[in-house]
Design a protein that fits this description.
Distance between the termini: 25 Å
Number of strands: 6
CATH superfamily of the largest domain: Vaccinia Virus protein VP39
Strand content: 25-35%
Number of helices: 6
CATH topology of the largest domain: Rossmann fold
Largest sheet: 4 strands, mixed
Order of helices and strands: HEHEEHEHHHEE
Number of domains: 2
Length: 173
């Protein structure tokens, strides 16, 4: 995510470093090699207790990690805290669609993927965790309520891949 954002960052000559925050030490070790030639600083931290000053960031993004937080309301409150006024969030994550699409998705996600993924990777538990984490993750209307309750404005959700994933966006007033 950090490397993708670097490609779209305006260049002024005195940019502050981009921060790549993750709870996983192993992920940061892998990222550090890729970050070395860029102005990216890796920080190991819990998203509910960021070691970042109040009102200091312009943008906070998350890709397929927000649903793993222990408390979504606290997560939104922490994002609100670290953003400057006018700062934005972008949270890309999985979703459990409804209707026929949801039924087909469930069949694949809960029956086919764990078996196939387990056979290929040798780690079937990882492929059982994913559907469980998506199932407990609030659906877009509820998550949008949480975003607004945290103080954000202009909250929106754009679904992708038949609603199996989507992007939440909002702005700190």
């Amino acid at each position: 995510m950090a490397l993708a954002l670097m490609k779209h960052r305006p260049v002024t000559g005195n940019e502050a470093p981009l921060l790549a925050v993750d709870f996983s030490h192993e992920m940061l070790l892998r990222g550090a090699e890729k970050f070395a030639p860029h102005n990216i600083v890796a920080i190991e931290a819990d998203a509910l207790h960021l070691p970042i000053a109040d009102g200091s960031l312009d943008l906070v993004t998350s890709a397929f990690g927000f649903r793993n937080l222990a408390n979504y309301e606290e997560g939104f409150a922490e994002l609100f805290r670290v953003l400057r006024p006018g700062g934005q969030i972008g949270i890309l994550d999985c979703n459990q669609p409804g209707g026929l699409t949801g039924a087909m998705y469930n069949l694949y996600f809960k029956k086919v993927l764990p078996k196939a993924g387990g056979l290929i990777s040798g780690d079937a538990d990882a492929y059982r965790y994913l559907p469980a984490s998506v199932e407990r993750f609030p659906r877009p209307p509820r998550l949008l309520e949480m975003i607004r309750a945290a103080g954000f404005k202009d909250a929106s959700w754009t679904g992708y891949t038949f609603g199996t994933a989507g992007l939440y966006r909002a702005t700190k007033p």
